[in-house]
Amino acid sequence: MGFTRAELESFRDTEVPDLLPPPDQPLRLLFVGINPGLWTAATQTHFAHPGNRFYPALLRAGILTTPIDPAAGMTDADREALRSRGIGITNVAARATARADELTRDELREGGARLVELVAERTPRVVAVAGITAYRSAFGARKATVGEQPEPWGTSRVFVVPNPSGLNAHETVDSLADAYAGAARAAGVLG
């Protein structure tokens, strides 16, 4: 599946709904992206883009058992496979942009407040925010580092994991898989 630049631009400012288990099912692990990219908005699949390593890293970590093509997007069966394991995906900011640096600080702070409300409502075991810069901006944690954060959000442990974007060139699928597996083990998704 491919898109022209004009087709992708037509998805600017589109929102992508959260992928969450139904409210009567537990949410064990909540992955949080910065915001939807244009490809994500076009496919309505979080972390979708041919160069995004999120799904390959989840597969390598054992969090997924079958591959998801980050270019084509998720099938209903893919979504159900994640939900049935108690895995959800959301974003700090809801608005689709070509680059995360197009977001304002206010958008990140407002999105951070919305995320904290979602976590209070759904009480995942672990929240895994993908991207240290976005975490620092959204939560005013200027000295935060990658890994588990010292302060939980209520009963939810909080991890900052590396951003899987192809722009984050110093991370590999293997290093991403290690970080994601750590959060998944803490959430009880992996043994």
Task: Sum up the structure in keywords.
single chain, Uracil-DNA Glycosylase, subunit E, 12% strand, 191 residues, 5-stranded mixed beta sheet, alpha/beta
Topology diagram in text:
Layout: H1 5-9, E1 29-33, H2 38-43, H3 54-61, H4 76-84, E2 87-91, H5 105-122, E3 126-130, H6 132-139, E4 147-148, E5 157-161, H7 173-187
Parallel strand pairs: 1-2, 1-3, 3-5
Antiparallel strand pairs: 4-5
Offer a quick outline of the entry.
It holds the Pfam family UDG. This protein has 191 residues and is an alpha/beta fold.
Tell me what the structure shows:
Helices cover 36% and strands 12% of the residues. It has a single domain (5-187), classed as Uracil-DNA glycosylase-like domain (Uracil-DNA Glycosylase, subunit E, 3-Layer(aba) Sandwich), CATH 3.40.470. Strands 2-1-3-5-4 form a five-stranded mixed β-sheet, sandwiched between helices. It has helices at residues 5-9, 38-43, 54-61, 76-84, 105-122, 132-139, 173-187, and strands at residues 29-33, 87-91, 126-130, 147-148, 157-161. α3 (54-61) packs across α7 and α5 (105-122) crosses α6 (132-139). With 191 residues, the chain is α/β, with parallel strands linked by helices. It is built from seven helices and five strands, in the order αβαααβαβαββα.
